[in-house]
Specification:
Blueprint lengths: L1 H5 L1 E6 L5 E6 L7 H5 L10 H51 L6 E6 L11 E9 L6 E10 L5 E10 L14 E2 L2 E2 L13
Antiparallel strand pairs: 1-2, 3-4, 4-5, 5-6, 7-8
Amino acid sequence: MSSQSRTKVRVLALSSRCRCLTTSAGEGSVSRFSLLFPSSRRDAFTLLEVMIAIAFIGFALLALLSLHHSGMQSVARTRELTQAAMLAQALMSDAEEARFPEPGRLVGDFQKMYPGQYPNFRWQRIVEQSQEFQDIRRVHITVFYGPAFRRTFVLTEFMHNPLPQLRPPGGAPDQTNGAPDQENAPQGPQGDD
């Protein structure tokens, strides 16, 4: 019986529903399990509380997913806008290389310049003569992109003719009595009659 007195097995009731076996060296010792799992029934979560917490977590994850989706759409729109700006600047550089482009309207896509790279982009270039100044032209470039080409990027620049247009003060060529100026009239061959 001395071995039974050294080691006793005792059954402790942790709650009304659960019983655990512990080994104890003495009569008044505290179980390790009773420290981990208190005997109070209120310290545990009910099934309803767990379900409500999972619902809140689900709503939070759903909100984060919608933010992620809208963020990805914003990145795609920004990328398209940046590409449209780059393509418009390339077209404006081509117009600047021509130095003083002829008035008119041109349209096209970017397949000739960049084969296979920008299928969802189209462009239009309008060159207009200035009403006030004959040596200035307005170059207006529009790049259409996006679904059904509804989005646009517009770039406008005024170009000056590198060869000056000489005009007398008043803006119109000098005409006296409907005849051209005799100083600037071409001289024909002078012969004997």
